[in-house]
Amino acid sequence: MNFIKDFVEQAERRPNAPAMVHEGRTYSYGELMGQVDRCGRALKEVGVNPGDRVALMMNNRPEFAVAYNATLKIGAVTVPINTFLRGAELEQQINDVGPKVFIGNEWAARSVGEVRDRLSTVRQFVFTDAVAGETDFEEFVSSSPGTLPLHPSQGDDVAVIKFTAGTTGRSKGAMQTHENIYQFLRANMDTYTIQPDHCVLLFVPLFHGFGDHCCMNPVFMRGASMVLMDPFKPVDIFEAIQNYHCIYFGATPSMLYGLMHHPAADGYDLSSLQRVLTGGGPVSREIVEGFKKKFNVDVLQGYGLTEGTAGYTYTRVDMPFREGSCGVALPGVEMRIEDDEGNELPAGQVGEIVVRSPFNMKGYWNNPEATAETIREGWLHTGDVGRLDDDGYLYIVDRKKDLIIMSGEDLYPAAVAGL
Fold first, then answer.
1. Sign of the C-alpha dihedral computed for residues 309, 210, 200 and 187 taken in this order
2. CB atoms within 10 A of CB 142
3. Residue range 62-82: mean pLDDT, rounded
4. Which residues have a Cβ under 8 Å from the Cβ of 276 and sit 6 or more positions away?
């Protein structure tokens, strides 16, 4: 069960429907899937087989969506890499997963150039911008025309590997299967409420679960369209909502605060916007109620982690807002609070959040010890400390280990010290 099957079917049924807008250019489903097929064939021609890894390191741009889905379509594994990484951390992540192909932008070319001579598994480097002496992405895919069949991946096959610090400072590759991602997308359909004629605004990083699993993949699954932007620019966001009638977007709480208080906010027609999704930090009553008052838009907060695909909880428009809470469990998610001895605690008491869910990762790549420590008897131990109230609302209190959240990304003091 290849989780991009719905995207493939949408392109077959509605090839002329708009799929993506980027910098004023619209890409139809047929055109985008044609690029996916050419990229997939090019990957196969350089020796990428089912189960092999392809690393992607670039900002939000159509080539990310093309390479991401091309890798999946041929049964290989997509490895999105944080574009802020450099040096030893970047070298460690690439060598851990051993990709055959690395696809990046000009910034990635500079970053990977610092460690390139120590990346032994990469057969082909491809860059989306003109980089002297390197293979250009357009050239890479242009010589491989023709349609590409969808590889019949199984539900337990790894689809995406994303690196996370988890509950320790050294990054580990969380293996997200096709079943993990598909079940997450299905469970969130009531939250997204996307229809084929809807448009979604996407400006959070595609390498993060907030970008691909909460925005891009739901759009392609339902045959809707997206406006792809990078980076966060309030006026451009207002213009995109007005011009393309976007119904929702994802953003961090600080981004929402910036939009809410931007002096240009009142100069645009934002009436199409129905809701926004947020995470990566606590959301105050000021933001939730202020956004609702200013834009007549509901703010839905979620909680999740890379080991759980993207999210375990969301606040819901049909349930009352409770300040400090990140909502209730999504369908299919079992959540409890445990003490240090592994005993389940009653509502109101603080302990570690543990989760049993179809979204839980298969494990950490090539790290059975960390996998066994994190997943015990089917329950994933998050390393986050919180409590549940009597109605099942989750409240995050702390982390079991020190963690710094920076621009929605996790950084541990050990990693910061090494920069």
1. positive
2. 12
3. 98
4. 248, 249, 250, 251, 256, 291, 297, 298, 299, 300
| 106 vs 82: CA distance, rounded Å | 14
Which DSSP category does 365 fall into? T
Q: Which residues contact 357 (CB under 8 A, 6 or more apart)?
A: 308, 312, 330, 332, 333, 334, 380
Q: What pLDDT shows up at residue 96?
A: 97
Question: What pLDDT is recorded for position 415?
Answer: 35
- pLDDT tens profile 271-327: 999 999 998 777 889 999 999 999 999 999 999 999 999 999 999 888 888 888 999
**First CA to last CA distance, the chain:** 41
CA distance 377 to 375: 7
Phi, psi values for residue 161, rounded to 5°: -115, 125
Positive or negative, the CA dihedral 115, 119, 125, 128 is negative
Burial track 68-98 (b if 16+ CB lie within 10 A, e otherwise): bbbbbbbbbbbbbbbbebbeebbbebbebbb
Residues 6+ apart with CB under 8 A from 282: 253, 324, 396
Structure tokens at 178: 């096709």
| Residue 269, both tokens | 């027609």
Q: What is the pLDDT of residues 253-279, one digit of tens each?
A: 999 999 999 999 999 999 999 999 998
In which residue are the tokens 């995109």 written?
240
